[in-house]
Task: structure prediction
Amino acid sequence: MTYEPIKIHSVMLKLSGEALAGSRGFGYDDEVIDTLTEEIIGLKRLGYSLAIVLGGGNIFRGGTWKNRSLNRVTLDEIGMLATVQNALYLSEILNAKNYPTEVFSSQKLDRICRHYSPRKASLALAAGKICFLSGGTGNPFFTTDTAAVLRAVELKLDLVLKGTNVDGLYSSDPRKDSKAKLISSASFDDCLEQKLGVMDMTAFALARDNSLPIKIFNVSKPGTLCEAVTSAGCGSYIHP
Result:
């Protein structure tokens, strides 16, 4: 199946928290974030309805925290709060650039953002706002990949766009295997048969069961965000 940009009108953008930190690995790289927000604005100018789920790994990553003696539930809750911080930060930068946003959280944090519900987020998207959906799923043991797919299904979005630091989905890890081949298109069944790591299995199964396509692209390359949505030749397309 070939990717058809004409069928895409609404997009869920999933970015890791590390994408906000640049080479620093922690916190925020303002130059990187300025470029990223300009690309988000570029995609919005093309007329797409846009929701964004951010990870929190640039601040705190719950499930992989080195101190395993601590309560995993509490650690994951700290990680979920880190995603709220990231959403608020990018939201403020976009607002300063005169692009309206709305930040929603799966937890009730009424003083700083709205509590998420599919209806409230759908209305905000329909009003033309860029919507940040933070706080993960609201439950421990689930990744922000799963949160991105879940929210995309709830909001009936057309595509999950996953930004990575490589050009798409490969037959093996291109950073370790010089013979790794870029896979431009694959079905969900292909990914299972070839054991290709698109997302964690919970997120992948949810996308497969709801026939929600995924596009994987290299967010670290300037200009690829818009190109990934508008061009079949950019990134890897995972489809039913």
